[in-house]
Amino acid sequence: MFDLIRLAIAFILILFLLRKKWNVGYVLITASGALSVLYLMKPYSILLVIKNALTAGITIKLLIALTFIRIFEFILRDKAILGNMMESMKGLFRNKKAVVISMPLLIGMLPSVGGAYFSAPMVDEATRDLSMTPEDKAFANYWFRHPWEFILPLYPGIILASVLTSIEVRIFIILNLSYAIAMFLVGLWGLREIRGRHSMLESVSRKGLWSFLPIIILLGLVIIWHMELYIALVVLVFMLIIYFRYPPGKTAEAFKYGLSWNVVVLIIGVMFFKEALEVSGAVGNISRFFYENNIPLMPILFFLPFLTGLLTGITVGFVGSTFPLIMNLTGSDPHAFTLAFASGIIGVLLSPVHVCLILTKEYFKADMWGIYKRTIPAAGAVLIVAVLEFLVI
């Protein structure tokens, strides 16, 4: 019970500082300090948080990925590739809503930390002639990259769930398909104010089609050749620098744009808070609280993965920490675990430490509560579908 109170205080602090327009990175660093005080962490534990956060492989990968995503964006804008790409999308789809959501859906196929920062400039470009608020743009970019997480076996969460429960990935995909469809449809409803069609193009130019080649190469490196995103981005950026024959001065300008102090602070803040939750024992204590107090099955299937997903902001985090406990209660019941999986992902979607949410908010300079006002009802609708499927089937 005390863990719930401590975590509530930490999350209230986060929301308060975000409302005060603090940089998200500094907010999470402050919240990490608050957790260390609330949990009376010893100096050794605090040093362990700092060490783990700064030396974790994901920290280095995230820093490289986000830096090179910014460099990639710089090149796309500098060479007018992004503009050509959006003009082609308008010609191919014409429907304005389809153009806006197409890039998050496409880039969402990349199971990458920080991928939302990659599609954000494309959504920004696609919405230039639309009267959309930063919060609407942020919702479109954030929401439409995540339906894949329910059904795409490129994502590690569904693979880990299959391994832990001995339920075939195929079964997870079939049972999760309704959640992915519901998420897509709910997202369309959330953007219902986008209406109209772009003017008909007689034909899409060859130049416009070639503008998609960098994206196709990146998808190929990640999906076909199984290259990690940060490595694929490094390879692609240097290919483009060589292809466009960037002089040293222009290359330096691109790298200066790519390496942003705000991005560094952001990554450090996310990792500090994640490690503070782990080292303090908050995540494990919450799981044990529900398990040891003999709470009925249905609330456990929702609250255990939901709260863990909310705390960690990572799918493999809630799967790895809660599914073994749920196994003791249900065995390998596919319907129980698909409800638990949906509940956990909804927690991840609403987590203030979810990297995609933080990056999207920062890119569009959107108000966090403004994003939540759109995301919470949409997530609630998906949860209703998950509960109904569990009760009926």
Question: What secondary-structure arrangement, pairings included, does this model have?
Answer:
Elements: H1 2-19, H2 24-38, H3 43-55, H4 57-78, H5 81-93, H6 96-107, H7 116-126, H8 134-143, H9 148-151, H10 156-165, H11 169-190, H12 206-210, H13 213-224, H14 229-243, H15 248-258, H16 261-280, H17 282-292, H18 297-312, H19 315-330, H20 334-350, H21 355-364, H22 368-392
Helix pairs in contact: 1-2, 2-16, 3-16, 4-14, 4-15, 4-16, 5-6, 6-7, 6-8, 7-8, 7-21, 8-21, 8-22, 10-19, 11-20, 11-22, 13-14, 17-18, 18-19, 18-20, 19-20, 20-22
Question: Overview of this structure, please?
Answer:
- The protein is mostly helical and 393 residues long.
- The protein has one domain.
- It contains 22 helices and no strands.
- The protein is globular and about 65 Å long.
- The chain starts with a helix and ends with a helix.
- The model has no long low-confidence stretch (mean pLDDT 84).
